[in-house]
Design brief:
The chain has two domains: 2-128 and 272-321, Alpha-Beta Complex (Quinone Oxidoreductase, Chain A, domain 1); 129-267, NAD(P)-binding Rossmann-like Domain (Rossmann fold, 3-Layer(aba) Sandwich). It has ten helices and 15 strands. It has helices at 41-48, 55-58, 120-123, 129-140, 157-168, 182-187, 219-224, 248-257, 274-285, 302-311; strands spanning 2-5, 16-19, 29-38, 71-79, 91-95, 103-107, 111-113, 148-152, 172-177, 192-195, 207-212, 226-234, 264-267, 293-298, 317-321. The strands form three sheets. Strands 3, 4, 5, 6, 7, 14 and 15 form a seven-stranded mixed beta sheet that branches. It has a six-stranded parallel beta sheet with strand order 10-9-8-11-12-13, with helices on both faces. Strand 12, helix 8 and strand 13 form a beta-alpha-beta unit. Helix 4 packs across helix 5 (157-168). The longest helix is centred in the middle third of the chain and has 12 residues, at 129-140.
């Protein structure tokens, strides 16, 4: 099968299209013939092997999984032992292993059935970015009607979902994003766009909830735009941060400081769950959520797409099709 593979860490140039053997599903897994796969920040971390702490999971000297990609939508073509929820021929979406290929494998509990009203290119965008944003907005930030919410990195993959889901819950959203993404965040329902290249984020005043997706601002700066009893949700680690922990170092400090402050600071890493996938798909069906899929590209263009992701130029979600 055709797949995007890498044998070492580095820039997007280490990625190449090649022929590899298709994977076999293990116990509790299904094999999916991929119809669409989306990019998320984890792809950049796996490609570069940065921050260094990530190599503890990805492989110390080289990637343990040669084929990158998590978010996918496709058709089940084989099932492993013990699988109960899916059968060959089912249309599914969620997260898997080696999604940048014609065939990938996924754990049963990381998938949901894809409604026919939700296109594969849209469903693929929900697996990591959508579920992470949903859990951050609903469970960690506890965003509700009338609240003021500020989102950094609002024009990217997770950020666009945070904006859209906060608006869907009745919040008033300030979106921090570059000048080329003003139209995008407005389309998602943001009341105000802060162009970080021209004005500080403090220009928007204070907010009940701040969701930091960009991952590159000091905690003290984020706290200045947070209500004295507000909640700061730290999602992003940033793609250009340095050090062994990268941007995750801020999450460690936030956890240490938070018990001594009136402001809540919560670091968070989303994990795809079948129930959350189904919730997002339902919102797409009834019109409450329209994922910002801004580019659909052939699988062979994955290196270019990853390069744009690492440079911070990606708008919304980019989807690859085999």
């Amino acid at each position: 099968m055709r797949a995007i593979v890498q044998d070492r860490y580095g820039t997007a140039e280490v990625l190449r299209l090649d022929e590899v053997d298709p994977p076999e599903p293990g116990p509790g897994e299904v094999r999916v013939r991929v119809r669409a796969a989306a990019l998320d920040a984890g792809v950049w971390y796996l490609t570069t092997g940065r921050p260094p702490v990530a190599q503890l999971a990805f492989g110390l000297r080289r990637p343990k999984n040669r084929v990158a990609g998590q978010e996918l939508a496709g058709t089940v073509d084989a099932v492993g032992a013990g699988v109960r929820r899916f059968a060959v021929g089912d249309e599914v979406f969620g997260t898997g292993r080696g999604a940048f290929a014609e065939v990938a494998v996924a754990r049963e509990n990381r998938l949901a059935h894809r409604p026919p009203q939700v296109a594969p290119e849209v469903a693929a965008a929900l697996g990591v970015s959508g579920t992470t944003a949903l859990q951050a907005v609903r469970d960690i930030g506890e965003v509700g009607a009338g609240q003021r919410v500020l989102v950094t990195g609002a024009g990217g993959g997770v950020g666009t979902f945070v904006v859209a889901l906060s608006v869907a819950r009745g919040a008033r959203v300030t979106a921090v994003a570059g000048p080329d993404k003003a139209d995008l965040v407005a389309r998602l329902g943001a009341e105000r766009h802060v162009d970080y290249t021209r004005e500080p984020i403090t220009a928007a005043g204070t907010h009940d909830v701040v969701v930091d997706v960009a991952g590159n601002r000091p905690l003290r700066e984020l706290r200045r735009v947070l209500d004295p009893r507000g909640t700061l949700v730290l999602l992003g680690a940033g793609v250009t941060t340095s050090g062994f922990l990268g941007g995750a170092e801020r999450q460690v400090r936030a956890a240490l400081w938070s018990p001594f402050l009136r402001q809540r600071m919560r670091g968070f890493i989303g994990i795809a769950q079948a129930d959350d996938l189904a919730t997002l798909a339902g919102m797409c069906v009834d019109g409450r959520l329209t994922p910002a899929v801004e580019a659909v590209r052939p699988l062979a263009e994955a290196p270019d797409a990853v390069r744009e992701l690492g440079a911070g130029h990606a708008r919304g979600k980019t989807v690859l099709v085999p």
